[in-house]
TrEMBL record:
PANTHER family: CELL ADHESION MOLECULE, RELAXIN FAMILY PEPTIDE RECEPTOR 3.3A1-RELATED
Record's protein name: G-protein coupled receptors family 1 profile domain-containing protein
Alphabetical list of Gene3D superfamilies matching this protein: Rhodopsin 7-helix transmembrane proteins
A Pfam family of this chain: 7tm_1
Transmembrane segments: 37-65, 77-99, 119-144, 165-190, 214-236, 257-278, 298-320
Keyword Transferase: no
Keyword annotations from UniProtKB, A to Z: G-protein coupled receptor, Membrane, Receptor, Transducer, Transmembrane, Transmembrane helix
Compartments in which it is found: Membrane
Start and end residues of each G-protein coupled receptors family 1 profile domain: 57-318
A Gene Ontology BP annotation from the UniProt entry: immune response
Organism: Silurus meridionalis
Molecular-function annotations in GO: C-C chemokine binding; C-C chemokine receptor activity
Keyword match Ribonucleoprotein: no
Superkingdom, taxonomy of origin: Eukaryota
Length: 356
């Protein structure tokens, strides 16, 4: 898949490489990966599955937010506002996956033209940044709302500030995506049309682009997530430790924090670790060798799939795991599966709320 996670393009034509000695530069290796049939089928299948699950999950989040929580509560909840923005980013993100699945199925050759290359690649990268930014903001907001008591009369001001924060995060994600929008292009390499980035100055710019992604999309968010959730755990334990009647509450908060931090780390760390390795190679801080080639060719695509799976996990972690959402979801499924509802739908009539 193009440039979302490594703009030197791991997704490249299926060229069987038997003599690594013939490559004189890192760029040659980056543009000559071995796209084996099994790897391509696996990538296409994962992209298709993530797209399907992500669409259903995020559409369900939209539905629950719009119809089940109530207008007044939906407008006042800071976390819910972040959840909606996160669902928007993940929804837009998964819409690009069919393009990357088709690219993988076609031996990583881009069939959609130069304009679509710029659009799809830019939308993919922008929503990758936005998703990470909103996840980070949610952790900060969660700690702030728990640790700091709500002051009377401040709800409207806080919600207005959150709107501004969300707007600023969208702008920041757009700015971080600007190099992708400018330099994304379809380039013919080894007879194949590839959608990738072409910087005019070569490796130094490409390395800086990758370094920006690692810092903004992983290192800083991971540090912020860890600190905020650690402070949240300490606060909850101090407040609840003296209350022996609420050990389950403390246990739930602890598990929730661990799941949030670990899911982000597990999904994104492998990809960013290999990307950082590539940055060091491009800056001549680490030697390029056969190990880098093998990892970049066969392991890196799997880390991309793992990172994409985060778009499926977000609706579960930040919406469907909450008790209020689970209750509304159970009520919705019960209504849809009840005999009265089924009979009414079949006859075109209305459902009696007392019986359905």
């Amino acid at each position: 898949m193009g440039e979302i996670l490594n703009s030197s393009c791991w997704a490249t034509p299926n060229k069987n490489i038997t003599h690594l000695d013939k490559f004189s530069s890192l760029e040659d290796i980056d543009l000559s990966a071995d796209g084996s049939l099994i790897l391509r089928v696996l990538i296409s299948s994962v992209y298709s599955a993530v797209c399907a699950v992500g669409l259903v999950g995020n559409l369900l989040v939209f539905f629950l937010m719009k119809t089940k929580l109530g207008k007044r509560r939906r407008k006042r909840s800071v976390i819910n506002f972040f959840v909606v923005n996160l669902a928007v980013t993940d929804f837009q993100f998964v819409l690009t996956l069919p393009f990357w699945a088709a690219e993988a199925a076609l031996d990583f050759s881009w069939p959609f033209g130069n304009a679509m290359c710029k659009i799809v690649l830019s939308v993919t990268v922008m929503n990758m940044y936005a998703s990470v930014f909103f996840l980070t903001a949610m952790s900060v907001s969660r700690y702030w709302s728990v640790a700091c008591c709500v002051r009377g009369g401040g709800a409207r001001r806080r919600f207005t500030s959150i709107k501004r924060v969300c707007a600023a995060l969208w702008v920041l994600a757009s700015v971080a995506t600007a190099p992708t929008a400018v330099f994304a292009t379809v380039t013919v390499v080894a007879g194949e049309r590839l959608c990738l980035l072409r910087f005019p100055e070569g490796h130094p710019w490409l390395a800086l682009y990758h370094l920006q992604k690692v810092v903004l999309a992983f290192i800083l968010p991971m540090i912020t997530l860890s600190i905020c959730n650690a402070l949240l755990l300490r606060f909850v334990r101090r407040r609840i430790v003296a209350n022996t009647s609420r050990p389950k509450r403390r246990s739930k908060v602890t598990k929730s924090v661990i799941v949030v931090v670990l899911s982000f780390f597990v999904c994104w760390m492998p990809n960013h670790a290999i990307t950082l390795w590539g940055v060091l190679v491009k800056l001549n801080a680490v030697r390029w060798d056969k190990t880098y080639y093998m990892v970049h060719t066969y392991v890196f695509p799997l880390t991309v799939c793992l990172a994409h799976a985060n778009s499926c996990l977000n609706p579960v972690l930040y919406c469907l795991m909450r008790r209020e959402f689970r209750k509304k979801l159970r009520n919705l499924f019960w209504r849809l599966s009840s005999p009265a509802f089924t009979k009414a739908r079949a006859s075109g009539g209305a459902v009696d709320r007392d019986t359905a």
